[in-house]
Amino acid sequence: MPPTISPLELNQQELEKILERALTAPLAEDDYQKLHAVLETLAYMTQLLENKNTTLQRLRQIIFGAGTEKTRQVLQSLANQAVTSPASPATQEQSNEAPSPQPEESEPTPGHGRNGAEAYAGAEKVKVKHPTLKPGDRCPKCQKGKVYAMTPGVLVRLVGQAPVAATVYELEKLRCNLCGEVFAAEAPARAGPDKYDATAASMIALLKYGSGLPFHRLQGLQGNLGTPLPASTQWEIMARTAPALQPAYQELIHQAAQGEVLYNDDTTMKILALMGKDQRRGDSGQTATEKEENSERTGIFTSGIVSTRAGQKIALFFTGRKHAGENLTDVLAQRAQENGPPIQMCDGLERNLPKEFETIVGNCLLHARRKFVDVVTRFPDECRYLLETLREVYKHDVFCRRQEMSAEERLAYHQAHSRPLMEKLEKWLDEQFAERKVEPNSGLGQAITYMKKRWNRLTLFLRQVGAPLDSNAVERILKRAILHRKNSYFYKTENGARVGDLFMSLIHTCQLCGANSFDYLVELQRHAQELAACPAEWMPWNYRETLARTAEL
User: In which residue ranges of the chain is pLDDT below 50?
Assistant: First the structure.
């Protein structure tokens, strides 16, 4: 995924003041960060402008962000133009063919947007008894009937508190005035042996690696609430907690290797120890081969992998020099041979493919579609036909999901309803070049070339049971890494990146499985010995069952 440019609140006058201060004294840390961001932006913009394939529209999207790519919104700007051109077969097909039944449009979920009491699964439940009555008592109004229990009424009350709260225990001390012996009260059992409880470590991990809140911002928030929590202390807690959770992370990798469908992609990241002068200090523990490879590759990436199997989803993160395909190779090294090659869904980059293991490769249909979205204003009629065709294909996929079809039923449905659409689209793509309707070097020609070159992989969902249409699953989890990059800018060391990968993988796997990530991290810490002995029983989807069995023993 390409990097986005974060907005920098800096005007020309402020920049000139920074330069004036630089002439008289060393730069302050804040001034340095602003100048560094300006230089990075300038270098990136220069690189984009030197690329002949960068259009003004693409440049605006990178700087100001792209809007929605829904077909309805993309085509809205073309409302004053003809629905289709004479060269486009969309209108002809609609008029010549009898309309086939299509799945209904997705409708907005009804409701007023407020959360009911049942949505507060993590809230403390307080049962309030009636002050004078209990079930079986005589009715105080009619004095004849008896009252019986009903479904209780509910009130929801929310209170604010510090993310990490503190309790100060004042232990009373008494001293004998004759012998001087001191008698101190014992700490209550709830105080625990450690200053920082497992819940504190879990909350810091969720804020940092789950919500993208940097350590220094949490430090400021905690200070304002009267509960100091320095950034250095937060990192020490994370570094101390990570080894105990390592077995769960390794088991997630092992479980992900057995997946039926694996999605992978990567995005850029920064590790200061691998950049510039710090790289020499970070190479000491590497082998000669690793040094040679890293000397040729300057990029640093966070790879995301999503593995699905029997309805369970696992999210994995890996940060370093390796590309997504190399990290997928490391994961597949743990795959059982009897499982056979998995389905792999990724974009069209070759670096996403594992070199040492066989996979059934499918390419993301939305990546191909985006090529046409980028040129829709210049080729409205042609792009309209393709966008509307793919919209119908996606309607079929939504229909399959709503009907809860099996993978085999879904394949049969797509073959019956989506294959004719895709075959006509393929014929239309061929005609654009064969009949010289489109210049191959134009924006539309390049989009068509991209799609034709990868057609077999783009249509894998028409031949392979369980094959998805796109790689949205991994694109969504990579937004978590991008959020971290946007707010924290970088990892300082490779060890810091490994800790971040571990917590992100655990937290976002919980979110994919519908588990409470805070509760999960707490229980893993409290049962570290049991986790180390049998990590497979402490996965986000089964740890509650393990806890229940443990409580019964």
Answer: 80-105, 278, 280-282, 284
Phi, psi (degrees; rounded to nearest 5) at 31: -65, -40
Cβ partners under 8 Å of residue 265, min gap 6 = 1, 303, 304, 324, 346, 347, 352, 471, 474, 475, 478
Cα separation of 511 and 153, whole Å?
30
Cβ pair 339, 367 in contact under 8 A: no
CA distance 128 to 140: 20
pLDDT value of position 275: 85
- DSSP class of 440: T
Over the stretch 340-388, which tens digit does the pLDDT of each residue have?
999 999 998 899 999 889 999 999 999 999 999 888 888 888 889 999 9
Residues 6 or more apart in contact with residue 434 via CB below 8 angstroms: none
> Three-class SS of residue 426?
helix
Q: What does pTM read for this prediction?
A: 0.78
Radius of gyration in angstroms for the set of CA atoms belonging to the chain, rounded to a whole number = 29
Count the alpha carbons within 13 Å of 6 in the hemisphere toward its beta carbon. Answer: 12
DSSP state of 386: H
pLDDT at site 107: 55
Q: Return the beta strands (E) in 101-203 as ranges.
A: 173-175, 182-184
